[in-house]
């Protein structure tokens, strides 16, 4: 909470307070909020301190690992990952572990400059403990993010506290059975020539076709003209 409060105050101090306030007011009553973003995201957000503490995780983590948000926040992340992956995770959390040779002598204050932020980007996989029944006890996650300053922490030290801000998604393409059913998803069955065999009620409702109309339509009749070449290429 302290981190987000500091970031909000920092934005106002940068002179964008009035402009940002007006923009936020315009979107106060739109459905494009953080909750919908989490529903659309195939994964969850996590903040890990460079000491290995889970500083923050979105509540959507429960749908992927089975842990409730309150069970893992402020706990050691090393207790949640496979023993063989702990050393790699520890290296990824250190800001200077993967500096290229030409930047080996760069200091922390310099690496935090906007022109050097790419040196703090991270992309790796780690096996996390998973309590869900459809796993073998661990789920490999693709973790992508950046090491940044963790504002709002009352620590007296020469270097600012750092943390990895990351998006965590299951590694590899999910199967159809693992994809959460959303309101805009439906199932249809097609012949090898893409001719429609059947469509579930949700698809008929979303597309607005009746059974009699669908009976006389081919698979390509449902595709926008601009997308025909792409669908045909994938259909080969």
Automatic annotation (TrEMBL):
Keywords from the UniProt entry: DNA-binding, Nucleus, Transcription, Transcription regulation
UniProt cross-references to InterPro entries, sorted A to Z: AHR/AHRR, PAS, PAS-like_dom_sf, PAS_fold
SUPFAM superfamilies in UniProt: PYP-like sensor domain (PAS domain) (SSF55785)
GO molecular function terms noted in the UniProt entry: nuclear receptor activity; transcription cis-regulatory region binding
Intracellular or extracellular location(s): Nucleus
Domain of life: Eukaryota
Ranges of residues in domain PAS: 38-93
Entry GO CC: aryl hydrocarbon receptor complex; nucleus
GO BP of this protein: xenobiotic metabolic process
PANTHER family, per database record: ARYL HYDROCARBON RECEPTOR, SPINELESS, ISOFORM C
UniProt protein name: PAS domain-containing protein
Organism: Photinus pyralis (Common eastern firefly)
Record lineage: Eukaryota, Metazoa, Ecdysozoa, Arthropoda, Hexapoda
